[in-house]
């Protein structure tokens, strides 16, 4: 356990944290506009993994691609993952949640529907894509390309960090600087009044799901690059990212990013100190501790109706 | 939704106008589940007027405004805007007709700045009109000083100003106001009513819901008194102001 190794783990923590952050945004955005804990978001993420995998395996890759080619492949895989993730999220909202909103169903019904949709989606994925783990095309030789003060980053990890940061910056811009973002924030704060201003709530909710789905799907592909793609892959990252959203302050976009980074870092450092068996223990301990002292999360519920 | 307005069929009471009202509520019945909140009311608002809608708590005033702005759909009866039926149109589509609704309790967006709140008022346009923004800041200099402050941190009076300003950003022909004086100090209420008068002079028609009957009737041209979902009285504002029943029930004179 040298200092060098610690540094290595911290860099890995940033990579993982970036992924959690991007997934957590999907939970937090949907919570913001609907006060709904969309547990099926982990399956949106999983479908994103398959979207990227299917496109990249179908599109014959060059064996042993150069760094530049890898960038192209990752970009294409991310787009495919985002597209499938966005499509699944869009369909999920239309099929599962919109009818409930029409009938003013109680919150609990939404929650149960979310869990049901999650089961349905990952089982259908198992049926469609098989139940064994699959790797992304082997072209991704994990060559070290950058060393940061001795910690080595390979192409994949570098691209993960770069893409995740780009997505977060873009998302922050959309939420705070665009008209769609104004609509999202208005619906989150007071849907009835938002509609008096001419905001079409159904449209905003649908687009919010799609945005979350695009990010979650892209993250699913990036996650698959780093490990494997399998129909159950959504569960743990999903629940961790959900915890990250709560940790940062559910409904708070920047909070979700912060929470994701914190949990990614805590998780890898836990593995470093206590070993892999403890991987998910410390992160959730941190969550519980933070919520005991700050029930609205680190940054508070910003997008949401309260606080 | 076609212009099925019947332009000629007007009641023949003396002194009543026969032109098409800007807003007409015709035999309006509105329910919350099994509760009948409006039991067939008739209200007309003509272009350029200030019309007051008075009544005790629970009389159905807010329900009336909410139905006029598309937040609720009537079970029976019609809402007509310039003679065109608009009931059943969702509120987010209805803003395009030029109906601005300042809701009960102000309801500014608490986590948006004053400026962002005003921009939300112009959401139906591609971009907010800077002239409208200037106009709002001229009407409410207090808002101008607080452009970057969050809506939720404003005082009650400032929030009311913001809610009115926000509605003005949508360029309404008709402004629906739900108890703008609620919970505010008399001095602020006076200011707000002065500004409402100014807004009306600048060409916006106003339907004003109030419990503060004397202030409202002083500003209004005509008034309606609602009682448990029905129109109990309808008359010129001056006549209502002089009416002993109104004075007893709403102006705190005689036995309460
Ligand atoms: N959301 C609601 N659900 C059920 N009943 C309601 C609701 N809103 C108002 N009501 C009822 O409808 C009636 C009229 O209410 P409202 O229009 O708010 O009155 P006002 O604005 O004159 O005080 C009251 O009896 C009230 O209890
Ligand atoms: Mg009311």
From TrEMBL, chain A:
Cell inner membrane is among the record's keywords: yes
UniProt cross-references to CDD domains, sorted A to Z: TM_PBP1_LivH_like
Membrane topology: Multi-pass membrane protein
Xref: InterPro entries: ABC_transp_permease (IPR001851), BCAA_transport_permease (IPR052157)
Membrane-traversing stretches: 6-32, 44-62, 68-92, 104-125, 145-175, 204-223, 229-248, 280-300
Keywords for the protein's UniProt record, in alphabetical order: Amino-acid transport, Cell inner membrane, Cell membrane, Membrane, Transmembrane, Transmembrane helix, Transport
BP terms from Gene Ontology: D-alanine transmembrane transport; L-alanine transport; L-isoleucine import across plasma membrane
Cellular component GO terms, alphabetical: plasma membrane
Subcellular location per the Swiss-Prot or TrEMBL entry: Cell membrane
The keyword 4Fe-4S is assigned to this record: no
GO molecular function: L-isoleucine transmembrane transporter activity; L-leucine transmembrane transporter activity; L-phenylalanine transmembrane transporter activity; L-valine transmembrane transporter activity
Similarity comment text for this entry: Belongs to the binding-protein-dependent transport system permease family. LivHM subfamily.
Name of the featured protein: Branched-chain amino acid ABC transporter permease
Source organism of the structure: Streptomyces alkaliterrae
From TrEMBL, chain B:
Domain ABC transporter: 23-253
Domain of life where this protein originates: Bacteria
Gene3D superfamilies: P-loop containing nucleotide triphosphate hydrolases
Sorted UniProt keywords: Amino-acid transport, ATP-binding, Nucleotide-binding, Transport
One of the protein's GO biological processes: L-amino acid transport
Coiled-coil residues: none
Compositional bias ranges of the Basic and acidic residues kind: 7-20
Pfam families in the cross-refs: ABC_tran
InterPro entries: AAA+_ATPase, ABC_branched_ATPase_LivF/BraG, ABC_transporter-like_ATP-bd, ABC_transporter-like_CS, BCAA_Transport_ATP-bd_LivF, P-loop_NTPase
Keyword match Acyltransferase: no
Location of the region described as Disordered in the Swiss-Prot/TrEMBL record: 1-20
GO molecular function, one term: ATP hydrolysis activity
Family statement drawn from the similarity comment of this UniProt entry: Belongs to the ABC transporter superfamily.
Name this polypeptide is given: ABC transporter ATP-binding protein
Taxonomy of the source species: Bacteria, Bacillati, Actinomycetota, Actinomycetes, Kitasatosporales
């Amino acid at each position: 356990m040298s200092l060098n190794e610690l540094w290595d783990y911290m860099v890995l923590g940033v990579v993982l944290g970036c992924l959690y952050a991007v997934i957590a945004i999907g939970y937090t955005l949907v919570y913001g506009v609907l006060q709904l804990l969309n547990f099926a978001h982990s399956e949106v993420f999983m479908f994103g993994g398959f979207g990227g995998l299917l496109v990249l395996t179908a599109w014959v890759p060059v064996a042993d691609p150069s760094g530049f080619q890898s960038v192209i492949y990752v970009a294409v895989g991310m787009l495919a993952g985002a597209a499938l993730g966005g499509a699944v999220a869009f369909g999920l909202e239309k099929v599962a949640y919109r009818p409930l909103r029409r009938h003013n169903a109680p919150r609990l019904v939404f929650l149960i529907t979310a869990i049901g949709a999650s089961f349905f989606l990952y089982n259908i994925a198992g049926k469609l894509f098989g139940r064994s783990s699959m790797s992304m095309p082997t072209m991704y030789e994990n060559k070290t390309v950058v060393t940061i003060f001795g910690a080595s980053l390979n192409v994949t990890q570098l691209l993960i960090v770069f893409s995740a940061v780009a997505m977060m910056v873009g998302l922050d811009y959309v939420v705070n600087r665009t008209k769609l973002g104004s609509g999202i924030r208005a619906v989150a704060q007071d849907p009835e009044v938002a509609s008096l201003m001419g905001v079409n709530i159904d449209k905003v909710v649908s687009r919010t799901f799609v945005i979350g789905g695009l990010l979650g799907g892209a993250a699913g592909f990036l996650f698959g690059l780093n490990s494997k793609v399998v129909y159950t892959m959504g569960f743990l990252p999903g629940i961790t990212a959900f915890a990250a959203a709560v940790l940062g302050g559910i409904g708070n976009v920047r909070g979700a990013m912060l929470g994701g980074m914190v949990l990614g870092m805590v998780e890898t450092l836990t593995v470093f100190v206590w070993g892999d068996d403890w991987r998910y223990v410390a992160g959730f301990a941190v969550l519980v501790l933070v919520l005991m002292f700050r029930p609205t999360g680190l940054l508070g519920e910003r997008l949401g109706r309260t606080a | 939704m076609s212009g099925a307005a019947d332009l000629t069929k007007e009641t023949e009471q003396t002194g009543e106008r026969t032109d098409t009202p800007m807003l007409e509520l015709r035999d309006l019945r509105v329910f919350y589940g099994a509760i009948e909140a409006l039991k067939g009311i008739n209200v007309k608002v003509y272009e350029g007027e200030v019309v007051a809608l008075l009544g005790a708590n629970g009389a159905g005033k807010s329900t009336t405004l909410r139905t006029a702005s598309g937040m609720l759909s009537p079970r029976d009866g019609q809402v007509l805007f310039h003679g065109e039926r608009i009931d059943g149109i969702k509120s987010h589509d209805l803003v395009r007709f030029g109906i601005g609704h300042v809701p009960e309790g102000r309801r500014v967006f608490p986590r948006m700045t004053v400026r962002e709140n005003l921009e939300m008022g112009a959401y139906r346009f591609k971009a907010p009109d800077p002239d409208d923004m200037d106009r709002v800041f001229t009407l409410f200099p207090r808002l101008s000083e607080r452009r970057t402050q969050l809506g939720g941190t404003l005082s009650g009076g400032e929030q009311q100003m913001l809610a009115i300003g926000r509605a003005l950003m949508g360029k309404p022909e008709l402004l629906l106001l739900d108890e703008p004086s609620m919970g505010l100090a008399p001095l602020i209420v006076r200011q707000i009513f002065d500004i409402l008068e100014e807004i009306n002079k600048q060409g916006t028609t106003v339907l004003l819901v109030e419990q503060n009957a004397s202030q409202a009737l002083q500003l209004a041209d005509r008034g309606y008194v609602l009682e448990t979902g029905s129109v109990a009285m309808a008359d010129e504002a001056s006549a209502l102001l002089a009416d002993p029943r109104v004075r007893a029930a709403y102006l705190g004179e005689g036995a309460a």
